[in-house]
Design goal:
By secondary structure, the protein is mainly α. Helix content is about 75%, strand content about 0%. It is built from 10 helices and 2 strands.
Amino acid sequence: MVERKYIAPNAITAANMFLGYLSITASIAGDFSKAIWFIILAMVCDGLDGKTARKLDAFSEFGKEFDSFCDAISFGLAPGILVYSVLKNPEYFGVVESLKSVDTMKSFVIPISFIYALCGVMRLVKFNIVTTASSEKDDFSGMPIPSGASVVCSYLLFVEVVKTNFGMNLFSIEVFVGLTLLAAILMVSTIPFKTPDKVFGFVPKKLTIPFVVLVLVTLKYSMFIVTCYYILVNLTKFFTERSKEDVE
């Protein structure tokens, strides 16, 4: 008999996987906007299941493994299929010029999208090997997979809203592919990544709620900015410390 305290966090984790599944179906149907938002909602569930488990003291090895398998779907496979679908149909984002380069890029669609999904799954395997289920949230070795998914989704979300509101098409296949591969590399790297609460620790506690509200209200713009900031802060810290060690 499963203890009642484990039901809520595992149900939220299952919702995470369901949203990832919905994202995949939306990508296949060519509805990229829905595919992106399903992944974003899965991120919300991914954050809530951990908070719920800490609140209920409901940590277990099953929960850790279940969470990773669901993350593999929502933040590994779903974004991978989104990348595949976007690169197969770049006209969705208004790419009509440079057809020769577009056709050339299409020949690399499967390798690029698969590399992202593969690196995401490898990231989760490494995470499960080196961590145990607990209430403590340590820093990461390599970029966490939700951040990898955020790189892919936030860029598409940003260019879509800019095009809709300002009539400017900022979508670039080269940039999109570059960001996708960068996310894949960072996920399987050994670069230390601090938890988001530490990176954004500069926000005073009394302004935390207004800051979160501001990010949510402007999410279509702010998600890409926040994601880039999170990555840049961690990379800057890593390379700064490494250069100091080389000098010494």
